[in-house]
């Protein structure tokens, strides 16, 4: 199907491969987007969360009488009022190295016995207005005995550290190991050279443009909840909220999501506030709204990254990789998020090998609870970190061994003639030409012209360095995904699917896929994603899998439309079904020019009245696409930096990327996805770091203290493609959403190391840190 689809797309203005502008941009630019906080439901009250000011402490009592007496207050609730609800827990069934399951934590909507991080919710107030709720929240009295806190994972796992939970010895919730430790140690013992680096992946605040917000409603007549919330997939969130927390059948909860202003993994799962507004709505008999403020977001939104890692690479005398080893501490925060355990474990081991034929790998990670905000997925969720570790090891090993780093990479690349390749982590690479991608990137970056640019920088009193980020990442495995096509009476066609756009722009590429296959007019295609009542399946959006999952589901539904259309067209054209052909949006009788367009056919059969049993009265089709294997987007980023030795300031001067994203449905949007990931990678490399005091207070709790990249921190970002179509999904795509981070972290940090003469420096490479390294 893929070859036919690509051949068809070349004839179409809005087909696959065309740089079509995003359909939703005019809506958003004109202020017509509808985010959760834009909504006002008749009769709504306001909710304000009361959060712990202590990182660690025993709750003696929560006094609510003064708050209840405040003007406009409708209710004040504590953990005792929420006892009927189920907990939030880690959901990925990872096991310890001894085979026992990870030690889970039951997190209720409000803290009951202890608080475990600054920002831990302990109560909430509902009032007629937001101002009244805020005033009353300040009157809630917290009697909390403060305890010693610990914020670093390695420190929390050390003997004598403060213990967060009685049932988690040494605060280690998961002691994970993958790989044959004996074989890896033997490989290291016989290696001609071993490179070891201690690398920190700094903790990140997600900083989505739209703070989290939710509106809870209770339909007394139907005994049904409605939650309006920004999320990454209404089907999955409904399952978690209904089954685990509300303890009701899924049909007793409807989740509605409109526009979402960014998430990057953070808004994928349930949060305490969602149960709070639903409980209050049921108790009060009216809608209840909560919208976080940025200060609250800094402490209550799950953070990203935060790993302390020792990475080692063993090589033979020729430079062939023998084994790679990762020993890491992963900081989980005060509670276990649904996926927080997977970043430094499953995603490290799936991505550390990258595109290299490394025969052995060992990943050992202790996931540790600390008195910090919980960790969850953040753009890449362990994939960028693993690629960063590998590329820093390769660059350092080449320098230590006196070898050319490019030649070392090519020596170890998996070759096209070795594909399909099953790596030592079990991944099955189906396609790719990794050395060709690297070569194209070197040419695009004018690698050979670097010497002249370096000389010019030196003449200006600046240091200049260049770095390569040669990456490959595993996407998340697509879950079962709904594909539904509805031919509406107004002549439009609605796509219904379970992925969810939180800034990516799904409407346009999904429409391009459908337009290419069925010839439906591009401008007539609509998209529904954010209503759980419309879904029978849906994996949500995450792990760079949306186009592979929804695109495949759309194509599968389109085949059902064609089959229905052949029967309907045969009836209308008075021909046998076996004689009806379909191409370019038209059903025709084979060997003739007699036919009918798909849109005309859809309109006609709707009005024909009683039809024979084998003739459909609609072209509407709904299907569930089964899981496709993971895909492996890859590429090469090349970065050049300039450093001012007098101030330590790092400036990213040149940046080039060449990517293999398989079949690119929309090049304009794929480049935009890459640019966004690069910006976030540069932010982590140079600016962003969550810092805590010894007693667990957040020191970087606002944009006065936490640095984000701005436009003048970024150069023009070059984007080119060297695609090898994916062979394991019908669209041929490999995913692009997280790849920008996977390439940018190593490219930027390798460039800085190069400018500093090969010295290793950890992220973020702030002016203070760089200046200190330059001046000893």
TrEMBL record:
Residues 30-148 form the Aldehyde oxidase/xanthine dehydrogenase a/b hammerhead domain. This is Xanthine dehydrogenase family protein molybdopterin-binding subunit. InterPro entries: Ald_Oxase/Xan_DH_a/b, Ald_Oxase/Xan_DH_a/b_sf, Ald_Oxase/xanthine_DH-like, AldOxase/xan_DH_MoCoBD1, AldOxase/xan_DH_MoCoBD2, AldOxase/xan_DH_Mopterin-bd_sf. The lineage of its organism: Bacteria, Pseudomonadati, Pseudomonadota, Alphaproteobacteria, Acetobacterales. It comes from Roseomonas alba. The keyword Oxidoreductase applies. Keywords: Molybdenum, Oxidoreductase. Transmembrane segments: none annotated.
